[in-house]
Amino acid sequence: MTALRDSTALAEWVSRTRAGIGEGRFPARAFNDEAVYALEQDRLFTKAWCFLAHESEIPSPGDYVTRAIANNNIIVARDEHGEVHASLNMCRHRGNVMCKSEMGNASHFRCSYHGWTYKNSGELVGVPYMKEGYEGRLKRKDWGLVAVRVDTYEGLVFGCLDPAAPSLEDYLGGFQFYLDLYLKHGLGGVEVHGPPDHWVADTDWKICAENFAGDGYHTPVAHQFGFNLGYFPSSGTTHSQGWAVSVPGRGHGIGLGHSPDFPAFGGFPDELVAGMKEAMSPAQAAVFAQTRTAVGTVFPNLSFLMQPFSLVPGQPGVRFVTMRLYHPVGPGRMEMYSWCLVPKDAPQDYKTEAYRAYTLAFGQAGTFEQDDFENWTKVTRSAASGLVRDLDFPYVMGMESEPDPDFPGPGHAVRPYVNDTNFRTLWSRWGDYLAGEA
């Protein structure tokens, strides 16, 4: 087994890995290796735009949540003027954690160690014994909370630790077209339904990001009972139909499952569909009308799934959307956040049914969630094995695929939906960051 304990060996491994991606190979050890994890922390998560929260989680002035990018705990708060701020959750005096709750409402944060007090926008406004202790040597304006760069798209709040990184718009690179399939469900957009499910798993984040970038290959196997019992409005035969769409150079990808007999906009209330068509462009509506299931990943670790699910097997399904974040906390270990998104303008009974479908299928104890995590934890464990860590996995499906000239959306769209093209795009971008070229 090759060691990656020094910078030269690691750089050579990254170079070989990037070359292999273009040939349809990817190394098993990438999914559970201490040196790879450390390099991701240093070169990827400190440079990329990473998802922090949905604006509907902090709807009112003073609302906040605490989230993380790499090993940085971050407060995401809405100030008294309605503006969203992100700040490192650390007092500038001696480094104590400022906010110990995962969510709440506060106009100010006061350190429990020495009492330094900050507005929820990050400004230092209170220092005990300021006159007696500092004698004019401390300027409050110089010692606010460390600000984190933020930007938003359709309610999604992203943060970036690199002030020199390109804009969020440039980073998304046109993938907004496909994000709207999840976010423009009516003129009012979407909102989170309750707090996120949240747990820790012995799973590498990259396995999940890859799976949700459009892995339709596993569905008829890992979730075959869903077909047999009528939970899916498709079959093992029709499930592969559709498109794999990626954004080369950005790493984002989406799988669009299509069933010819599935009704356009099926699974949504009729009164909602008109608003959806109005909110989307004609090209987006054309794509949506052909989409049964949409499963996609915003590089590096934010994913979405929209699909119909029959609460009573064999009956017409209700369409639900889950948004998922895979936050790495160690080699082969991650924190999982999972939200249910519902249309703001939808009837309450639809929201309730959509949340129920999400919970039964992809909540923390959801049937399909358990299928996936059982496989993902085993893949992670195997990746740490000494005998396999110099082995590659094949990513050769669709190597010769040509873009579909009739597909109405942007990006690199190939058929069928079961395809490795999105994954090669994902890992190519990952390799750019690890090589320091992104």
UniProtKB/TrEMBL annotation:
Which PROSITE patterns does the record cross-reference, listed alphabetically? Answer: RIESKE, RING_HYDROXYL_ALPHA
Q: What range(s) does the Rieske domain occupy?
A: 49-159
- Which InterPro entries did the record assign? ARHD_Rieske_2Fe_2S, RHO_NdoB-like_C, Rieske_2Fe-2S, Rieske_2Fe-2S_sf, Ring_hydroxy_dOase_asu_C_dom, Rng_hydr_dOase-A
The reply on keyword Secreted is: no
Among Pfam families, the record links this protein to: Rieske (PF00355), Ring_hydroxyl_A (PF00848)
Q: Which residue stretches, if any, does this entry annotate as coiled coil? A: none
What keywords is this UniProt entry annotated with?
A: 2Fe-2S, Aromatic hydrocarbons catabolism, Dioxygenase, Iron, Iron-sulfur, Metal-binding, NAD, Oxidoreductase
Q: Which domain of life is it from?
A: Bacteria
| MF GO annotations | dioxygenase activity
Q: Which PANTHER family match?
A: 3-PHENYLPROPIONATE_CINNAMIC ACID DIOXYGENASE SUBUNIT ALPHA (PTHR43756:SF1), CHOLINE MONOOXYGENASE, CHLOROPLASTIC (PTHR43756)
So what family is this one in? Belongs to the bacterial ring-hydroxylating dioxygenase alpha subunit family.
Q: What is this protein called?
A: Aromatic ring-hydroxylating dioxygenase subunit alpha
Identify the species of origin: Amycolatopsis rhabdoformis
